[in-house]
Amino acid sequence: MPEDWNNRLAAGPLAAVRALESCTAGEWGRLTGNYTFRGGLAAACRTLTERAYGGNDRTALAEVHQLLALIYDQDFSGVEIAEVDHERQPLLRDVAAILEQAMLGHELSRIDEETVTGYPRSGPEYVRWLKDLVNAHPAGWHPLYHEHIAQRGTPEDLRLLLAQETNLDPRFDDILASMQMGRTGGEKMEIAANYWDEMGNGDAELVHTRLFSQALEAIGADRDFIRDSFMLEAGVSGNLSACLGLARRHYYKAVGYFGVTEYLAPRRFRCVVDTWRELGLHEVGITYHDLHIGIDAGHASGWFKNVVAPLVGGDALIGRDIALGALIRLNTSQDYLDELLRRMRGRSPVAVGAEA
Q1: d(C-alpha 178, C-alpha 248), whole Å
Q2: Residue 283 CB partners (closer than 8 Å, separation 6+)
Q3: Is residue 253 predicted with pLDDT exceeding 70?
Q4: What is the tens place of the pLDDT at every residue in 152-201?
Q5: E-strand spans in the chain?
Q6: How many beta carbons lie within 10 A of that of residue 191, not counting itself?
Q7: The pTM is what?
Q8: Degrees, nearest 5: CA angle 216-218-224
Q9: Is the distance from CB of 90 to CB of 233 less than 8 angstroms?
Q10: Element (H, E) at 206
């Protein structure tokens, strides 16, 4: 392996992958075929995840999620014509697979197995059980929304909140598009209907990513603010969303994960909308959240009725994976909202991004 790549690997896998971005198509091909390099990169990733999750090293954890975010940014981006011959996938999937295994392993270790096995076996009963599970979790009615934002939220609080929400909202439509692959019947139609709503039902002015961008602009959350205030906990949530949404084998977990997302959005967004208007902020900025109060209530109902219930009714074993996904979403949502609430209360003013 060339000495310069040895040095880059010594600096860590994030530095190595960043260096790969400047490679030519030929260099990508040579490195893909260089199994000494690929083995070194894999070993560096395993060392990093061991520090992050085995050694509780927060700096290493930040690097894990910066690296995953870099890979997912490529997964969700278009390609430049000059780079159509750049075959990045073998190397980047090597890296992502190791990091994702560690990330998901950690999240699954937090879940009590009894919680995800004692569920009803019929679809409708399972849905009721799953909703009870969500509502009983601390993230189901988190004080960040239902106390702090609702009772004493400021424009600065809303700006900080929306900056963190960039972890999912700007790419949720693409995740829904990905989740439709391989699905059929009413299940696929429900996800497709959800996707079409995200697309503004064909009106480019009402595409939800556009409306979310308007919200960011209205509250003053520009690129610099988002970069400087973005929390590690928000990054974890965003990376899990991408991981579960893109991988075919994690589809059932994604059903639970995004079912919780849709189910909780209306009650959370109501707090945001009411405070936004009480503060007299520009109305155009709250269109996104206002629309989702009603839309996501319908999405959640349809998701449970037409996706969750038929899946469990068809094969009760799927219920475990759906519940795992739901609890991953609830646990990481609690992590991120707990930290965000601390910051809003002035307990932790330094952004993780700045620390890393």
Answers
A1: 9
A2: 277
A3: yes
A4: 999 999 999 999 999 999 999 999 999 999 999 999 999 999 999 999 99
A5: none
A6: 25
A7: 0.94
A8: 50
A9: no
A10: none
